[in-house]
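Closing statement on the cytidine-5'-triphosphate sub-project.
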Amino acid sequence: MKIAALIVAAGRGLRAGGAQPKQWQPLAGKSSTFFALRAFADHPDIAHLVLVLHPDDISADLTTGLPKAQIVAGGATRSASVFAGLQALDGRVDQVLIHDAARPCVSRQVIDGVIAALRETVAAAPAVAVVDALWRSAGGHVAEAVPRDGLFRAQTPQGFHLDAILAAHRAHPDGAADDVELARRAGFDVAITPGSEDNLKITLRDDFARAERILGARDGHQTG
Ligand SMILES: Nc1ccn([C@@H]2O[C@H](COP(=O)(O)OP(=O)(O)OP(=O)(O)O)[C@@H](O)[C@H]2O)c(=O)n1
Ligand SMILES: C[C@](O)(CO)[C@H](O)COP(=O)(O)O
């Protein structure tokens, strides 16, 4: 089985704000994209890496020192960016792990969980069970409690047999919030694998500090 990682980094990061898109802003001395790429580049089971970039950000320097990596231009939506990367992989690998460049703290354990599940099933993705009580609000007040049973928070990398996820994208060119949703629309069953609280997506301003704390604690453990 040949496995590729497809890292999407072509968004503009409007919710996080800042002088440049969130995936290029300084994070623990590097960038979120650097840490996301490193997690897969260092993984012995990953044979190929595709980094999907906004056309304004394309620079060959980004993959210097990463012989397995290839750069592809992204699209106007996350789904369009993923589809561009998938097309570049067509016929080259059997399975693909699709990951947000905005999730810099993904661990080897989370990646391994998805890879292991793909030996048994066509699609698998990490998630974390919702443990907090959930409320629906109305005008700033609690309108009702929402049952949390069976609810999960979706994460990446979302893993697929390449033929299946390519077929799902071709059948649903309108896209979806993520690839699990597209795969399900195309009729594929998706297994849930263990996610991690640390595998946050940098979405808002405060997420940078949280990601730096997680990366700092991890590097401290690795060198100490
Ligand atoms: N056209 C797009 C939109 C998103 N992404 C990528 O998809 C991941 C998750 O998307 P999200 O967090 O929504 O990123 P943005 O679209 O950049 O954020 P925002 O919605 O706040 O603008 C990010 O790594 C982002 O770079 C992408 O490659 N191409
Ligand atoms: C793919 C994803 O990261 C799963 O949590 C998510 O769908 C990305 O986009 P969002 O706009 O923040 O929901």
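Helices lie at 32-41, 78-89, 108-118, 162-171, 179-185, 207-223. With this model delivered, the sub-project is considered complete and its resources will be redirected to Aim 3.
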